[in-house]
Design brief:
Number of helices: 2
Shape: globular
Number of strands: 3
Strand order of the largest sheet: 2-1-3
Largest sheet: 3 strands, antiparallel
Order of helices and strands: HEEEH
Distance between the termini: 74 Å
Number of domains: 1
CATH topology: Ubiquitin-like (UB roll)
Radius of gyration: 23 Å
CATH architecture: Roll
Amino acid sequence: MVKVTPTTQLSTVLGEVCSKQKFKPELCHLEYKKKRVDLGLTVRLANLPTGASLDLVFDEAPAASCMLPLIDFCQGLTHDTPQRTRSSR
């Protein structure tokens, strides 16, 4: 839990939460009722009600790391299929 004032920047809130949890702030964002909040705003200007609870959400993984399980799966399939060899002429 992070205590804030109406003039606290939401980017500061994200930074404090991430430092307490040892996360990288550039990999996360804040949401209120499943909607992403603008980190450039203060608490007052973000139209958050008193006592609002924000969720820390991790951004999607980069495309390259998403492809790794797919590659492993495909490699597993190729081990079961017979390999063709070229005959020498």
